[in-house]
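Appendix B.2, paired examples.
Example (i):
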Amino acid sequence: MNSTSSPTSRSLARSPMTSSASRPDAAAAQVLALAAATGEHRLTDDEALLLLSSADLLDLGAAASLMRERLHRDGDVTFIVDRNVNYTNVCMSGCRFCAFYRDAGHADAYVLTPEQLSEKVRETLDLEGTAILLQGGMHPDLKIDWYEDMLCGIKEAHPQIHVHGFGPPEIAHVAQISGISVRETLERLRTAGLDSLPGGGAEILTDRMREALSPKKASADVWIDVMRTAHLIDMSTTATMMFGGSETDSERVEHLRRIRDLQDESTDAGHVGFRAFIPWSFQPTNTPLAEETSAAGDTIAPPASGWEYLRVLAVSRLYLDNVLNVQASWVTQGAKIGQVALAFGANDMGSTMIEENVVAAAGVHFMVNRDELVWMIRSAGFVPVQRDTLYREVRRF
């Protein structure tokens, strides 16, 4: 066991487990978690449910940490210096959980000019960033040629920048309004300069939740199909899960199963598939859902606690045995919970977030710079490593 990464998991393993021993469900969950962590057993959906509902939190952390050590033996914890660039806030989806979008005629609606985009990329490169996360919304008027022009302009001015762009709902929307297939859309965007596809717009991949929160957005099946197509053309992708709304534990597990099943399908066929999984917690402030709840005289449920976040993170690490990297979400949970997440299975701290607008629109403003991320990782007993979007080492600290 690596001397850098092992102290945290050893300290968790030494924590009192009397609560587990005294509760049969918790004791059974601990056995399952350890079997999954060592690679001796692949969790079933029912077993993942048991972990979510009954496992002792420190047991989960110890098991998820053990699995991280098995998959990442060098004790490295990675991060990326990049920038979230929202090229437009216009979106016709009208998701009830989103505080960022605006209708096309709204006074605050915008579409960035080529000059504004270029300046944001230049600033990112000046800060030694390697990529931009380029996302917007389902704009009613922008078709494939507009996106091709945008990407070509970025790459002509800044050929060294990696464009991690859009997401399955955006891809499906552009394909639909342009009258072309998803595959043609992805291939044309890649030719124009798109390098990889983020997992945005996944939320919870169940029909009930999507109908309740985002009925105009791509269905769960469409989200999966876009990702399947990206994998077929060997485009690297990531997967996300936004939890802490009104979904059930069963729906959380269904989401994880769909990610794991597609990863099995893609990697069995020799494709890269999902490079990472990023679970993050819903932030309700300023969203239409919060306004509707308030108008009805009700109080919206608070966002997922740090305790709940760590539980979902650990179960995700143990269940997704075919996804190498799991990212901590300090952007929604704060830097200290992000640091604790490294003892609950996460091996990546995500981005320095030179710019972030979507979560900030919900009133959450956690920000750290590269030096702070390096300190957070090192003080937790790991080796800080700056990576690029494809998880290649850029700099070791």
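Example (ii):
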Amino acid sequence: MDSGSVAWMLMASALVLFMTPGLAFLYGGLVRGKNVVSTVMYSFVSMGVVSVVWVLWGYSLAFGEGGSFIGNFDYLGFKGVSSTGTDIHGAGTPDMAVAIFQMMFAIITPALITGAIAERFKFTTYLVFLVAWVTFVYVPIAHWVWAGDGWLFELGALDFAGGTVVHINAGIAAVVAAWLVGKRRGVDRGVEPHNVPFVILGAGILWFGWFGFNAGSGLASDGLAISAFLVTNTAAAMALVVWIVLGHIHTGKMSGVGAATGAVAGLVAITPASGFVGPMGAIAIGFGAGVLTFYAVRIRHKIGFDDALEVMAVHGIGGIWGAIATGIFAVGGIGLVNGDAKVLGYNVVAVLATITYSFIVTFVILKILDVIPGLGLRATREAEDAGLDVSLHGERAYVGDGAD
């Protein structure tokens, strides 16, 4: 057991967990003042609910050797998951450390979805949705991509840190959720973010935590972690620059929200590629992420589809680009730029499979929840008008002028 790698994996796990409060600040700053507590709670409560699900059955179904599509129940309650041995993952890092690391990915993924349904989704229903979605959507796709007997893993698709499992998965689920819950009330002329410093702080915390997300995904403290760290920062930086430049071209302004959005888009896109590309590949991926997500946001506004906080544009489109770009820019003789198109083909299959499965199963889950007595997807008209903070949580983020 390499004590240095163990220390790094525990630190990387803490960094990834810290991303979820960062997401809470990012999303909380983007909504109206009367819905801040509700929006923050979507992310924060995932830290509780998903942690319990992961320990009880999520990890076992994701990484147990059950077959090509789902794991088994060998590790229920972390039974047999060693804090010193490496029988499950064989990564040179104890299985329990890897399981903890993977728990943090499972926590943040459904929280990403909530940006699409902010300001109108019932909180009690969301708690049930968390359990169902992690169990029936996140866990199977994680098994496909990262378990040794998963069908996409065996096919040869490459996803170093979660382009398909986390970002495309959440982006597609967000589209389904926003479609089924319907448009927010009173947003025909747009919603101005109530706290831009919160947005930038949240993006900064995400950027900081993403070094654990990507550099930790090699499961060791080694040269691969160093390379993943560098390309993660590089892609985020490039996408940020692209966003503010394009914003200036179109509006004459360089938006703080735009800078934050661009940085997150770059982080999303480099995630699947971070263990396979070099610095110049990261520049290209960051540039592509900046351009594609910037115009995806503008198109979404023109269409009028109320994905409230641009989850599909940033995570869905960014994740799709990142998965495809992995197959293009991967070094070591396996990328398209090196004359090998196989990984690109495998990753296109992974993208299509993730989109299809996430869309269908998320749709089914939400449709069922919508007809269960006492649940339903949408808060009442009165609750929305008053703000979800007061009506659903009995609290205000602010007292006075900031409450609206």
